[in-house]
Amino acid sequence: MPHVITQSCCSDGSCVYSCPVNCIHPSPDEADFARAEMLYIDPVACVDCGACVSACPVGAILPDSRLTPEQLPFAAINADHYPPRPDGVKVPPTSKLAPVLPAPRLRGRDLRVAIVGSGPAGMYAADELLTQSGVRVNVFDKLPTPYGLVRAGVAPDHQSTKSITRLFDRISAARGFTYYLNAEVGHHLSHDDLLEHHHAVVYAVGAPGDRRLDIDGMGLPGSGSATETVAWINGHPDFADQPADLSHERAVIVGNGNVALDVARILTSDPETLAVTDISDAALRELRNSAVREVVVAARRDPADSAFTLPELLGLVAHAEVVLDTEDHALVRRDLGTAGDAGTIAKLEILAALPDSATESTRPRIRLAYRLTPQRILGGARVNGVEFTRTGSGETSTVDAGLVLSSIGYRGAPIAGLPFDDAAAVVPNRAGSVVNPVTGRPVTGAYVAGWIKRGPTGFIGTNKSCAMQTVSTLVDDFNAGLLRDPAARPAALARLVRSRAPGVVDAAGWRAIDAAEVRRGAASGRPRVKFTSVPEMLAAADSARPARRFSGPSRRTGA
Ligand code: NAP
Fold first, then answer.
1. Are 395 and 373 in contact (CB under 8 A)?
2. Is residue 75 scored above 90 in pLDDT?
3. Phi, psi of 297, deg, nearest 5
4. 300: Cβ below 6 Å to ligand 1?
5. Host H or E run for residue 542
6. Each residue of 476-486: pLDDT tens digit?
7. Order of strands across the sheet with 433-435?
8. Which own/partner pairs from 246-249 qualify as long-range (CB within 8 Å, at least 24 positions apart)?
9. What mean pLDDT comes out for the span 379-404?
10. Which of 170, 246, 327, 489 is deepest in the core (most CB within 10 A)?
11. What single string gives the DSSP state of each residue in 460-473?
């Protein structure tokens, strides 16, 4: 009864290191780790010990006997990652464990690090730093709530993925960890302020914007971006008042990555299945009144080039009605004749089995469409369609739609005081150490992790190895005496932050917000009902600590 990794695999690799027989690959040290769409268990080598189940932070691993019908394909997907071989032959060799990336060894004590951003990259960086004693980590976030895209970017029907917050809760409870939430670096505090109080600052700020589709008509009412729509669906306070207009029968999403699939799935789901999630109440109301019957996910390239991953495609077809036009079916058959790698073939086989769009649909559906290069958004007072050219030919076509969302990737934003590579939209860095692109020299004390370091790719857990590399660089620099000692004493930081950001929220404040949201959800069987405005969040934080919202670092840290 081997174990199987399923759709919500976050690729953080914890399972790899828990496995006593090294049967989970690619491991973070292997070349294909960065490109892999998930991790895979070799069913021949698995000894069924279940250690990986306990290690997985998102509940993605199950014994094969407990797979649901929709998870069954993952048994073959795991097995197909490994080469065929005679019965009983174990590949790779089971004699040694996966090589663990060496943990940074701190020489000396009292390393103080500020981490800006409390999403996955920031939390994994904190976790890695706090494996050493004598380290203090202060985590800043501009919102009163932590966890970045896990809270505001993961689709609400992916609650298993969101369960990674339990790991982040454990990290934030560690000795030496302090939250400064609702305190914005770049507004309340500058980079230099942070360096007065820390040896180093790690920016784990993600990619807060989205790549803009630069065609005529973007900006008309009825046009927008999928990333903003996801933030609205998730109740992010900056997007709570920007509802998508769902009063038309068709929506078009340009781009076919996993974000496009998330939005298409939510827009076509039965709202009652979403009503048991942590979706924002406002989004749920709009979805209940939605007129949308079809979401067209328009890719500019071929089926074999689809940007969505195989696990997400499998999850999509299990829950949604997904169709293809006849000419796109022909493209799929053509690509199946030439595709080489197993993952692409598996995706194409799923696409080939989808019904034709001419089939009558009984519920809102998703049409995956190919070779459509967007030319302009059509409409006057508001959007009424998109003009495409058939990629590779001059032939134009129009798709009528009342809502057009671009979903062509997130985009990093410059950070005050640091260099920025505008083309790649990342902060230039060497293994996480920020580098001045003109001189090629490191910017002392400045580090990056996550999407602002490597661009908006990968999964939540990809940030673990990314953050580990940054922390390793930082600790090496500290050990080598390259970081300046902070001028201020540790206790001065809390005073400074309180004076600059009087609304700062600490761990107790966040726990009060969290508990209040969970209570709001309990009555209706939901994991939580989120507060979608900062004042509501602060009121909940205050209810726990009416006298002061920020109590400073825990006494245990001695700071
Ligand atoms: P993405 O995977 O990079 O996909 C971007 C899409 O936009 C591609 O289809 C791309 O097509 C298209 N595109 C780019 N420029 C375009 C243009 N000018 N005109 C038309 N199409 C254009 O981005 P994403 O969907 O935002 O996802 C970001 C990352 O988050 C990915 O690593 C993704 O896997 C991850 N994510 C994962 C999950 C999950 O695991 N559940 C959920 C959400 C996001 P080309 O290929 O032709 O360039």
1. no
2. yes
3. -100, 105
4. yes
5. helix 534-544
6. 999 999 999 99
7. 177-181, 135-141, 111-116, 200-203, 442-448, 433-435, 429-430
8. 246/286, 246/287, 246/289, 246/290, 246/291, 246/292, 246/403, 247/291, 247/402, 248/222, 248/291, 248/292, 248/401, 248/402, 248/403, 249/291, 249/292, 249/293, 249/294, 249/402
9. 96
10. 246
11. TTHHHHHHHHHHHH
Q: Where are the alpha helices (DSSP H) in 130-249?
A: 148-152, 159-162, 165-172, 191-197, 226-233
Cβ of 559 closer than 6 Å to ligand 1, yes or no, is no
Strand partners, 442: 435
Confirm or reject: Cβ of 386 under 6 Å from ligand 1: no
**What is the DSSP secondary structure assignment for residue 181, as one 8-state letter?**
E
Instruction: Check: pTM over 0.70? Answer yes or no.
Output: yes
Q: Is the pLDDT of residue 172 over 80?
A: yes
In short, whether 260's Cβ falls inside 6 Å of ligand 1 is yes
Q: Write the DSSP symbol of residue 269.
A: S
Confidence of residue 401 (pLDDT cuts 50, 70, 90): very high
User: 76 in the Ramachandran plot: left (φ > 0), alpha (ψ -120 to 50) or beta?
Assistant: alpha
The answer to whether the beta carbons of residues 334 and 237 sit under 8 Å apart is: no
Identify the helix (H) or strand (E) that includes residue 331: helix 326-338
Name the token pair of 180: 């400064």
Pair type for strands 250-254 and 403-406: parallel
Atom from ligand 1 closest to the CA of residue 299: 9
Per-residue burial over 202-226, b if 16 or more Cβ lie within 10 Å, else e, is bbbbbbbebbebebebbebebbbbb
**15 pocket-lining for ligand 1 (C-beta < 6 Å):** no
Q: What is the dihedral of CA 220, 223, 229, 235, to 10 degrees?
A: 20
AA identity, residue 137: V
Determine if ligand 1 sits within 6 Å of the CB of residue 34. Answer: no
What is the pLDDT at residue 95? 52
| Banded model confidence at residue 559, pLDDT cuts 50, 70, 90 | very low
The number of CA neighbours under 13 Å toward the Cβ of 488 is 17
Residue 408 Cα: closest atom of ligand 1 = 7
Task: Check if the beta carbon of residue 245 is closer than 8 Å to that of residue 221.
Answer: yes
Please name the residue that has the structure tokens 């922390």: 471
Separation of alpha carbons 260 and 262, rounded Å: 5
> Could you tell me the two tokens for 37?
């769409």
What's the CA gap between 221 and 245, in Å, rounded?
Answer: 9
In this structure, the residue with its CA closest to atom 31 of ligand 1 is 457
Cα gap 160→187, rounded to integer Å: 34
Is any ligand 1 atom within 6 A of the Cβ of residue 149?
A: no
Contact 439, 453 (CB under 8 A): no
Q: Is residue 549 scored above 60 in pLDDT?
A: no
- Phi and psi dihedrals of 241, rounded to 5? -100, 15
Whether the CB-CB separation of 327 and 351 falls below 8 Å is answered with no
Question: Does the beta carbon of 301 lie inside 6 Å of ligand 1?
Answer: yes
CA-proximal residue: ligand 1, atom 15 (nearest): 408
For residue 63, the CA-to-ligand 1 centroid distance in Å is 32
Would you state the pLDDT for residue 121?
98
Query: What H or E segment, with its residue span, contains residue 442?
Result: strand 442-448
